[in-house]
Amino acid sequence: MSLFSVNKPLNPRSRKTVTICSFILPILLWCVVSYVPFIWHPMVEITQPGSVSYFRENMLVDKVLFKTESINAAEKGTELPAGIPANPVYLPAPHEVVKAFYASFTTPPTRSSELWLHESLWSSLQVIFYGFLLSSIIGIPLGILAGTYDFFSRLFEPFIEFFRYLPAPAFGALAVAILGIYQAPKIAIIFIGTFFQQVLIVANTTRKLDPALLEAGQTLGAGNRSMLFRIVLPGILPDLYRDTRILLGWAWTYLIVAELIGTSSGITWFITQQARYKNFDNVFAAIIIIGILGLTIDLLLAWLGRRFFPWQNTN
Amino acid sequence: MSDLILPDYRVQTDAVRNRFARIKKRPVTMEVKGVSKYFSSKHGTITALKDINLTIHKREFVCVIGPSGCGKSTLIRIMAGLEQASEGEVRLDGKAVDKPGPERGMVFQGYTLFPWLSVKQNIMFGLRESGYNKGSAEAEARQWIELIGLSRFENSYPHQLSGGMKQRVAIARALANKPKVLLMDEPFGALDAQTRSKMQSHLMEIWKNIDVTVFFITHDLDEAIYLADRILVLKSNPGEVQEIIEVPIPQPRHPDQFLTAEFLATKKHLEQLIHPANQDDDEDHLNLIRMVPVNDDVGSVF
User: Fold this and answer.
1) Cα(B214)–Cα(B171) distance, integer angstroms
2) Alpha helical stretches, state H, B26-92
3) In a shared domain, residues A24 and A77
4) Could you tell me if residue B9 is inside a domain?
5) How many CB atoms lie within 10 A of CB A119?
6) A124-170 pLDDT, tens digit each
7) Distance from the CA of B267 to the CA of which of A284, B47, B94, B261 falls in 20 to 30 A?
8) B245: in domain
């Protein structure tokens, strides 16, 4: 079987097909569960309440309850209720989500004080951007110093090692007390969530630089400063870039926590709000938007990475 | 080889003897004086090098051979200043060596080119460090690239080059700093036989034309004899000088000399030094092999 040879790349055509399948298969599974009536569908959507007093049209009831009420009605000889099998409200069908996806951008917010979806998204992106930028501006230099000089490694890493086990969300209340209720505490949570990991990961990456390159530099007459700026920095740059991409994914995770702190805002506010109204199609649409945004940014960064580092022959 | 009647490796022709006399009159470039190196481990102190003494004259080519673990890499790293001797010292032009510097260029087995720099930029690295401005460093690097025959590749990255090409760039990069000594740690060890012999001639050609002293580690006896004026033979546990051999083959060297009597005599002597004639361990294994059942149509290969 050529599709399953150990450690051999697939041919380009199968590779493309399999990549597409990686998206198609989950969607297909979702479609099957949503559209094939005899798979799962634990509820019944009432089309005709019949004689059952508390049934309403479009109401979702448990399958068992529907059955008992139907038997009751049949025994009494009154009008039978009618319904079709349905999934619970928290699993909307694909077409509903697609509709919601479109509608969420076109329907104005229910209250004038609320934000449009794209405005919520924009606010989320800003929180991530500033939180991550702040973390990187401080964390990357500290990490490189710790990875290059044992002195800084001993100075920073033990405390950071301790601090990174403290869960970022635990600082929510504190962040609000210090920084107020708007964007600042949210940015702080993203910062706390990424910064400590970042220092340690960057330090590790720096330490992994081939020591032979440093020795070669020394025998070519490079001084301390040159070693740092002409060998260490360019030497770790591709790995540093990759680390940053991975950490950006973490920052997205902390976003959800960050946005629940102080005044709810951003995409998380949108999601919780919609879940409260039981508009789960909107919830799914919003989650998928986050996924698409994250993937797009990552692909963009990967593509840029190939342009930035032409000396890397990896694909 | 054993049937051949070979001269003694110490017998030198007049030309060779005169050359050695001339070399000894040249000023001393590098001196290794009583260098020892100890490593401490859980199981006590390990002596990697014990009382090494060596005097290298200007523009001499010295090779080092020895069994693995004899400390030849440690020795060259101490000479480069990458490691410190536990006892004794290394002197370059009379000054003690304490840290790496561009006057002792080094070529490593693993090439160690900077992967993010092109061929030209790699060669410019040391020049820029020693204060050349960009333009003159570039001009200088171009000359070196031409000398090593890689003009077509001056803007290529190291990953686009073959092993032999990479090592040529590494040699040029070290030599661009105009070092007094070129230290080479098994530089051709990772190359295939053909590339290796090309690189050997290449290195000889460079050495003939440039004012540089070469200290060269190898585990290949032919390579050592072909390249060296003198060969330092180390033995292991602890790493000590076993013998310093004056190679009795006239310069300039040529591949034809691989089969001359002097060459073979030297090689025979080196073989005896490096692989002394007790092979009991191997005998046991060979006996075991005879016990493996063979089911083969061809009864015997002899």
Assistant:
1) 11
2) 72-80
3) no
4) no
5) 14
6) 999 999 999 999 999 999 999 999 999 999 999 999 999 988 888 88
7) B47
8) yes
